[in-house]
Amino acid sequence: DAKTTQPPSMDCAEGRAANLPCNHSTISGNEYVYWYRQIHSQGPQYIIHGLKNNETNEMASLIITEDRKSSTLILPHATLRDTAVYYCIVREQGAQKLVFGQGTRLTINP
Amino acid sequence: DAGITQSPRHKVTETGTPVTLRCHQTENHRYMYWYRQDPGHGLRLIHYSYGVKDTDKGEVSDGYSVSRSKTEDFLLTLESATSSQTSVYFCAINMLDGGELFFGEGSRLTVL
User: Fold this and answer.
1) Is B104 within 8 Å of chain A by CB?
2) pLDDT tens readout for residues A6-21
């Protein structure tokens, strides 16, 4: 699986947009970018995924660069409940393994 | 709620004893997974299953075995627990090929 690189931690003010970067320079053409988050000791929660185009859902937006070597997860109006560890993962289409890295610990400050 | 139940949620046992963790789903999902999570290592895949009696190893499968005799249950067994297997274990399910995973609430295992 392609590796991803994320900053270990980030801070963001409540109400502001949180932009979480992820580098995946060795991603191949059929690999998707997935984002999950884990709040405290709960099970990880799926957020969003994409292949080439930017994606948006009720939780977040995913911006993937044209060369697909990096992406950014955007939480448009961060709240205190968004404090969590965010994982960026690349996964081959049809592959069943999902390999997690260390993630980014995002802290939303009041 | 994806209908995943893990049991037990907490267990303390002694080195050398067998332990079985159960993951039960009510959604008839084909794919099921066992992960462990430790400080400094994030989530690591132990084993996964792609159907009844069909399983495969993940990245940290040594010391663990799994069984899936029916669609709804995926069992993780530690034949002889060691202190290094103290961890939080998460089960996950995935119905669609390439779809997102839904995780259970975790089972905290302490091996003394």
Assistant:
1) yes
2) 999 999 999 999 999 9
